[in-house]
What we know:
2 copies of one chain form a homodimer.
Chain A: H1 25-39, H2 46-53, H3 67-84, H4 92-109, H5 111-117, H6 125-141, H7 145-170, H8 174-186, H9 197-209, H10 215-235
The structure holds a DNA duplex.
Amino acid sequence: MSERVVPPTARRRRRPTKQGVVLSEELIVATALRLIEEHGAEALSVRRLGRALGADPSSLYRYFRHTDDLMLAIADELIGRTLRIWRPTGDWRSDLRDLGLRMHAGALAHPRAAVLSSYRVTGRAYEIQAVETILGVLRDAGFPDAEAVRIYHAFVDQSLAFGALDSASTALPKSAQEGEAGVWRATYARLPADTHPHIAATARHLVADMPRSSYPAALDLLLSAAAARLAEIRARPRAAGERTAAD
Amino acid sequence: MSERVVPPTARRRRRPTKQGVVLSEELIVATALRLIEEHGAEALSVRRLGRALGADPSSLYRYFRHTDDLMLAIADELIGRTLRIWRPTGDWRSDLRDLGLRMHAGALAHPRAAVLSSYRVTGRAYEIQAVETILGVLRDAGFPDAEAVRIYHAFVDQSLAFGALDSASTALPKSAQEGEAGVWRATYARLPADTHPHIAATARHLVADMPRSSYPAALDLLLSAAAARLAEIRARPRAAGERTAAD
DNA sequence: CTTAACAGGTCAACGGTGTTGTCATAAGGT
DNA sequence: ACCTTATGACAACACCGTTGACCTGTTAAG
Lengths: 247, 247
């Protein structure tokens, strides 16, 4: 079978499907995203995608070597979309907060792609652009280089990790998802105070808090720690920590 | 078929498999963990597990209602193992730091299982014990109830999320893993300063920092933000934030 | 000790999945 | 107008989770 997948630039013969659709990488990615949005993450399968496109499932293998390839293409598109709608204001803290929330929301909108893309470095255009932008925000705010990289790393990984985590729960079958919320109400909220005093004392808060994502809270904690660090650095610029920008 | 799954305590008739194995919930969970470790998360299927146990796949449905149930049992076993080796000292911050690092290390030790279990609420014995313990640490430190739950939630989810994230990268094929590290050296470190000034300025730090986990840094940021919050609460106990313990 | 109930292991089947080898045909360059 | 070949279609393979019906050894009651 030599090479099954042809680079998009080399594609010339646009031959329509039996059902009259002209396939393309873009159309496939767009249709996959639509499928995920409309019928949930578990609705995305090669066969279903083929059916939705009006093409034989095996046709897709002319465009993507396997399902993972397709997922990465979807993920790349998502990074681009997130970055494109983000507008920095100049206030580093609220800019990062906004970007973090957008990245998280983008991941939740496309759970399966988020889980796959969270732990991969692509080195592609959109990713590079994101790195440059975030580092710029931090350095312009006054963080020394080593500190800027440290905080950039924690910030990005936190967004990706929570994006993947929360995506995974939304990708669960509906029944399991309802079950999770029920556990806090049915199991935890009913534990007796004499055996589990701390759970019993906070039961009300647990039931309210636990079924929601903790990403906003975690993000705010990270940003406020970073802000405290920055204040410290500004107060005594040469001896703020173990290292400075010039180390 | 009435009820297929019997509670473990009510099990009496220990009838061996055709191949001579006596099944039990424990044996099934242990075998599943072994399978995951040896052949990867995708190697865990009801059929493969049955084969590894020396039993018909459908036998497992006498012990777990469906695959999800089995996953929860596996997750809980992992929580138990981590909790069992943790010893609190009474200093909330270093206790949580220690526990966080242990959870993260535990996830890395069982990469494929960690990814599966990170996003599930089991409601089983070990998980309940962990919730009670951590909430106790926070409340004893002086956090009001709502704040304790908020920080507990962020702390636990962050540990699980980074555990899953870092596990996923270690679970990559060796070649892909080396490739990821190479991207920072080969692509990012070579970007010209005039188009990507911030990346160029921090390239040295990026190459050193990015291939390592950012979890310790993220954990320290979270804990130091929590400590700052606690100091604030202690200074003006009734008006520290939007809410107090008695809201 | 015998015996009847039934827990629990087995079998076969259903409808789904990703993926591949082979074939047919229409598009495009010549 | 012809020939090449890109690309879509088809059929098949090996998996997957799950279920209903069946069979049999264990156990408790008599």
